[in-house]
Structures are given as C-alpha cells and as structure tokens.
C-alpha cells in the first residue's frame, strides 16, 4: 500500500516574524552588565535595524571596486562629484571642545595600564584604539569599554600582578578620541536578528561606537569635551555618509544637538585618497579632520595592485618611506584638501620606538621620529601621532617650532600643490627586495600574529611598534613577491618553498613557552601569504577561526 502524498499548495509560506534584536553569546563576566545593559542592547538593536543592511551594501561596493582595480581600471577623481570638489563655499564643522589643539596625539589600546599611561602622558589627544591596536577578543572588546567608562568618570586605577599601582595623576588629561573597528569587521559574540528572524554577526563598528557613545556622551559633554571618533578603513564617500547618518540618528536618540559628535577620518585606503573632498563633504556637520594613516595606506596599495605586474611591486617595507613619490603626493593632497575646508590635517605614526634599556636604540628612534615630525610640521600638518609617551616631547618640539602659540596651521592653504591621479600611483622607488626584507616580513608577521592570538594588538618587535596594519604590509608583500615572480637582490627566487624555509627558521628561533601560539600564527601566515587566494584582511579569517568562540 502506498502512502498518499499531500496535494501541492499555492498558499504563501509562513515565516516567523520576530525581532529585531541583539543576542549575546559571549560570557558575562564581572561588571559586564554595566556595559551590556538593557538600554545599551536596545540602542545597539536600533543601530543594526537601521544601518546593518546599508553596511553590507557598502562592503559589496568595496569588493566590486577592488575587482575593477585588479582588472586594470585605475581609480580616478570622480566625475559625478566634481561639483563638490569645485564648490569653494562649504566647510566642515571643525574642532569640537577639547580638540582645538591637536599637535601631539598618543595612540594605544584600551587596557587599564595603557589607558592610565596615555592619560598621564601629556599629549593633547589620546586615540583610544579598539581597532588595529586591539586584538578583538571578547574580553578586550567589553573590558576596553569598561576601562573607558571608568577613565571618563575619574574612577580608573590598576594594580599589576607584581603589585605596582597605576593611577591617573595628570591635572589635564588628553581629549579622548575613540577608534571603533572598521566596517568590514564583525563582532561574533553578539548577533543581530532582523524582523524575518535572520541571524548575522553584529557589526564591530556599530558595537564599539554604540557602547561608547551611549554610556559616555553626556559625561564627556559635561566635562567640556564630547563624543569624538576616529573612523578607520573608509573607502568611499558613501561609507562616510553611512557614518554621518549613524551620528545624526544617535544624537537624536540621546537628544543631543546635531553636530555634537566629531569625527576624524583616517585616509588609509587608496580609494579614499581619491575622495577626500567628498568624504569631508558627507561628514561636514560632524567632521573635525583627516589623518594620514600611512601603514594601512601602503597595505591598501599592495592589496589593490598585487596582481598588476612588476611596475606595482614595492621593495622592502623599510624603503617605503614618507618621502617616496606616491606617499608625498598623498600627504600633500591631504593637507591641501583639509585646509581648504577648515579641517585639521593630522600626521601619521612613525614606527620607531625608544628602548629604555638601550640608549643607542632610543637615540636612533628619537632621531627618526624628530625628522618625521619636522617634515609633517613643515608640510602644514596640524598635529601628529606617537605610539610611546617618551616620544611626545620630541614630536611636540617639532610642532612647537612651527606652530608657536597657534593651535593649527589652517592658514597654510598649499596652493602650489597639484596632484594628478598618476601621482598617487607613482610607485617607482628604485630599491631592491633584499633577503633581510623578506625574512623580516615573515618574522614580524608571525611574531605579531602570535601576540594577537594571545590578546595583544600593539606589540614592540625589534624596536618598532607593530600593529595589524604593519602585519598586513608584511604578509601582503610576501604574497605579491611570490605571485609576481620576484627575486632578492642576490638572485634568490622568492617562492613558497623559500618562504616555508624562513617560517621554519622563525619557529626555530622563537622563545617557546607553554601556551604560546606560534604554531597557530605560522598557520595563519601560510593561509594569508602563501595560498593562491588573497584574503582581504588577515585578521578576518583568524578572528573567525581562533577568537570568535573564545570567551
């Protein structure tokens, strides 16, 4: 006997309508409930409900643009926005309270010790970094927010495992500018469930921004400053417009005046360099300035031109300085564009750092940083970054010599600057790829990734400050050198087999200890530098594989 089948139906399929909602899968440790409050979850839910789909659209635009460049379509200044660039009348909002003088900004992660050191440093601004200088473990994401909350309320202290106590003692602390993760990064310990019941990882950008803004905006305003942000990895004015809409909605949500938020955009991708005016325009009611994010900018150029032939192959990372043609064009255009619109131009971070146990290393770092900041101040920048408190006096001396008592150089309009698209793509340097350059890239990337897997996002390696951006340069150069059949200056072909030998050497030389992550780090490096496919970001896959399930 056969079992009768149900007749076909033409009735609509019923779907469960629920949400929107943010759900939490990460552990709730001590004090996490002070950050993940019901009010905060409601705000994060609204941010995702209104903006998550637009975020995905912008990420799709990135993929399309990267495909076009890889297939021979060089970026150019946009025809459809020429009217924005040609209109001399508009200006950005400019500096908010506490951002009038930005001559020296210190950058660093948001753990308690580093936060206290930054607040005591004497810098004018602290970039509280939840992005490249922070490994996005669940612990770092939430406890970084707790640290910022306590610091803003004057309640932060820290005792090291050795018993050393750290407290904020400075009479005037730096103005805090918080850097949330870029649009491309998810937060997998939180999920957004839309009205149709679809579940996707939350946006790292919206989580970092939303928690910081909701908990601290009123406190910051009451202290005479404000909710200020650095925006990382933007690639278009449409992405800037998305942030601007997030800001406007958030101000309304907390009943704050429009324009309370101030943002400084890092120009650290090649596509963004062709849209500086447009990015400023879309953010004009909330914009304080632009920053020359040099390391990610170099990475972006390698990433976009990795398959375009020998003309686009860069030499050793150490040879790609701020004085090579394409970097000069990029920074000159940034200063000119900013000052034309009343925006501050902030310089980038030299990687050299002092070593208090080695006077020669310290002297060399100070010499390098001094020259770098002298160039920036002379070019018209209004301020700059340092990564170590011991470099603040060096950087400030160079800017003091140019600024004097003035808070900025907005009067330096740089009319002599004329940058064409080909200037931004002039990658000719004339230096070779050396055996040491290849070895250093492999060593730095693996050693950084090992620390990153242990929760450290900014690491001193060989007397240089390395973060995710410099690790990206290291692995992407190795990938490009292999796929473009490059050889070192002694004639050694750079092949997968050759690099595997260098990996083995790094692992053999490493100071191994129980619980280290060198084997995992080497495997990640192989995946992002030696495989045929080129992942857009090394941390994206590593995060999904190693950090997303860690509590």
What gross morphology would you assign?
globular
Helicity level:
40-55%
- In quaternary terms, these chains amount to single chain
Q: Give the helix tally.
A: 18
Please mark out the parts with pLDDT under 50 across 5 or more consecutive residues, or reply none.
Answer: 1-17
User: Overall pLDDT, averaged?
Assistant: 95
First and last CA, distance = 55 Å
Give a count of the beta strands, DSSP E runs of length 2 or more.
Answer: 15
Radius of gyration: 24 Å
The strand order across the widest sheet is: 6-3-2-13
Main traits of this protein?
disordered N terminus, alpha/beta, four-stranded parallel beta sheet, 15 strands, 551 residues
Quick take:
The protein has 551 residues and is an alpha/beta fold. The protein has helices spanning 38-70, 82-86, 112-119, 138-152, 204-222, 237-253, 270-273, 276-282, 294-305, 325-340, 359-379, 392-403, 421-424, 435-453, 468-483, 496-509, 518-530, 538-547; strands spanning 21-24, 104-108, 125-129, 157-159, 165-167, 175-179, 186-193, 199-203, 228-231, 262-267, 287-292, 344-346, 384-386, 459-461, 464-466.
How would you characterize the overall build of this protein?
- With 551 residues, the chain is of the alpha/beta class.
- It is 44% helix and 12% strand.
- It is built from 18 helices and 15 strands.
- It has helices at residues 38-70, 82-86, 112-119, 138-152, 204-222, 237-253, 270-273, 276-282, 294-305, 325-340, 359-379, 392-403, 421-424, 435-453, 468-483, 496-509, 518-530, 538-547, and strands spanning 21-24, 104-108, 125-129, 157-159, 165-167, 175-179, 186-193, 199-203, 228-231, 262-267, 287-292, 344-346, 384-386, 459-461, 464-466.
- It has a four-stranded parallel beta sheet. It has a four-stranded parallel beta sheet with strand order 9-10-11-12. The chain has a three-stranded antiparallel beta sheet with strand order 1-7-8.
- Strand 9 (228-231), helix 6 and strand 10 form a beta-alpha-beta unit.
- Helix 1 crosses helix 5 and helix 14 packs across helix 15 (468-483).
- It is globular and about 65 Å long.
- Mean pLDDT is 95; it is low at 1-17.
